[in-house]
Every structure is written in structure tokens, then in C-alpha cells.
Amino acid sequence: MAISGAADIAAAVRGGELDPVRPVEQALSRIEAADGVVGAFRTVRSAAALREAVALRERADLANLPLAGVPVAVKDVVGVAGETVEWGSRAGQRTPASTDHEVVARLRAAGAVVVGLTRVPELCIWPMSDTPEGIARNPRQPSYVAGGSSGGSAAAVAAGMVPLAHGTDGAGSVRLPSAMCGVVGIKPGRGVVAESGEQHWFGMSSHGSIAATVADAALLLGVLAERDDLLAPGEPGRLRVAVSTQVPLTHAPVPRPLREAATRAAARLGSAGHRVVQATPDYGTATLGLLTRWFAGPAEQAEEFDASLLQRRTRTHVAIGNVVRRAGLVRERTASEWTRRAEVFFADHDVLVTPSLAARPPKAVRWHERSCLANAVPSVQVAGFAGLWNLAGFPAMSVPVGGFDDGLPIGVQLVAAPGGEATLLAVAAQLEQATRTR
């Protein structure tokens, strides 16, 4: 049995039709064959993953595990016992984790096998996932980046190396690479994937799931959130759908293929029976509050790293972030005012459809060798639609809907009010089906 959907693999393993070692062997074989070009993985756990797959055979609860035998990739920001957590940096500690992070423990409890940790940009600041050790490239168009900061995770799924990958999203870091690589990525609302300790980036960061299909993205999200109601998409009912292609704050021009993809997706939802209107949230100047956190969050985290070993772009970003922190520019009022305006918008609309990206993805080059400004410009350009939903703590996801003329994938973003994860998954499944039949 070749690598296929996570749900199919798990069902075959649960039913005794598939040895859990087999899908792990196939995943490792695909990683060996493709990752020299794609660069999705920071480290591959070949021997450990095979040992864990063998041990899975003996689990008494194997027949009940939602991810039985499914090979998964984990973003290099959470502890996997026996592996270092590097955050894309040479400046951190090199002591292997003694225990699994909570989300990794949930994956293992559900029967998943962690085959490796995926590449991220240093401190997860940028939507380009490259390090001195390699560049995470878009498997559909290797001359372009895979995105970031969960770029390695999205690339691993898009290349068919694994059916599922964990990611985190602090300002679009699941949705941006998912859109660039043509896969599904969902960022749940604040607190849906609970974890102990402080959340990163002033509570903007959430654990999320990346998969080739909406059904598999739901399966992973349900496991991460420990919620059975999110394990599979349901039926959306008839919803009030808004579509907007206006970039917050700057109103920068959006490439026509991205605009048309959003309006085309909305039209397909209209054909499915939803009420569709053009409407844009009152973004105000909330983007400025997002930018202060984008600088200050990594600066706060960098206190645990050796500043002299940070990349040049990161040192500048952190220095700006420290100025922002000292000046008291990270204000809760900014987030609360924007959240209030977003709640007003979603009182009249159930789902918002926008482009996932506000610009074409950057080319795949060694961005870590360039200046902070050189990195910041394409970062801000591409991420215009994504980050404000982290600031508000609302769920959002990216669904592939086509591509540019050169084959580079295009995704659309779906947003809902807090508690709307099931609604997003249901609408995304409907849109996925409509897109496939066109």
C-alpha cells in the first residue's frame, strides 16, 4: 500500500489490513528520494520511527487509534523526546528534549509515528523557511519558497513525503505555506489546542494542522485539540458568506489571479446554496498593532538564545523588537479594539473568504544571508490577509483552489468567529469538492 490519505492508512492499520511499519517505511523512502531537492526536514528520525512503528503493533488499543500507524512530521518548535528543538537557529541550546511536548504526546497517544522535524526560519519570523543547512522549497515549483514559518511541514505534505504535518501559526505561518504549496492548513482559534505555559508572540501563536485534504486536516486538528467533534468535517448548512480582496491598512494591489481565485471560490459556495455578498471588515489600523507584536514577540523569545550566533536579519529584527518593548508599543487595547470590530463583522457573516496571499510567493534563495529589510518587505507583502486573525484569536484556514499560469498553487483563506472551526472545515470540504469537479 502506497502512502495515501491519513484516514485510509489509519483505517487499514486499525483493521489489521496493514502493518504499521509499512507506511512508515514508505514515508522514509519518499523522504530519502525527495528531500534532497525539497529540503523539508531539519532532521529525519529513521531508526527511531521504525522502532516506534514496530512497538505500535503491540498496543492493546490499536483498533481504536484515530492516527494508527500514520507517519507525521512535526515542526521544529516543540520537544520530541531524544531530539533537539532548534527553532531554525544555531544560537539555541543543543540539549535533546527529555520528554515530548504536549502536542507530540497527543500525536503518539493517537497512534501517529513522528518521522522527523521540519525546517523553519530562525525563530519562525519569516515566511521563507531557509537556514544555513538548507532551503525548504515548494515541491510544485522548486524555484519558489515553500513559505513559512511552517514551510518544511507544508513542503513535506505537498511532496507526498507524509500525509500529515504539525505546524504553528503566529501571523499566518500555517496558512501561508499551505497556500504556496497547494495543501490544506488550518489555524484554530485561540486556546482550542490547549497547552501549558505561556503562548508565543503574546498569545497570537496556535498549533495547527497541514494535510493534502480537508478530511485529513480535520483528523489531525481533532487529535491536537483532543476534540472528537473536529475529527471529520460535517455539513455546513446554509451560511452567510462574505468575500473581500481588500488588503488591510495598505490597500495594496493584489495580483489578479489571487483576486479571481477568491471571487471564484465565493461563487462556488454561492452555487452550493450559501448567501454570498461582498463585504470587508473594518480593519482600521490594527495591522500596526500586529507589526509591533511581530517584532516584539521574537525579541522576547531571543532572550533564551545566544545573540552573537543569531543570523544578521534576526539580530536586527530583535533589536527593533526590543525598542518596541521598551517603548510600550505592544498594547492590549489595540488587540481588543480590533477584536471588537471583527465580532461586529461576524455578527452579520458566518464566513469570510479572502485570498490567502496578498502577493506572489518569493523565490527560493538564501534569505537568511540577506538583511532584515530585504526579508521584511516580501514578508509584509505576501502576508497581508493573514496575521490580523492571530491578533483577534479567530480560526482561519487556507484551501487550494487552483494555480497561476505557471502552475504555482493558489489558496483562499476562510475565516470564522471563535468556535467556528467545525464551520470552516465543513465549508472547506464543500469548496474542495466543488473545486475538484470543475
TrEMBL record:
Lineage, uppermost ranks: Bacteria, Bacillati, Actinomycetota, Actinomycetes, Pseudonocardiales
This protein's name: Amidase
Ranges of residues in domain Amidase: 24-425
Pfam family membership, one: Amidase
Entry similarity comment: Belongs to the amidase family.
PANTHER family per UniProt: GLUTAMYL-TRNA(GLN) AMIDOTRANSFERASE SUBUNIT A, MITOCHONDRIAL, TRANSAMIDASE
PROSITE patterns the record matches: AMIDASES (PS00571)
GO MF annotation list: catalytic activity
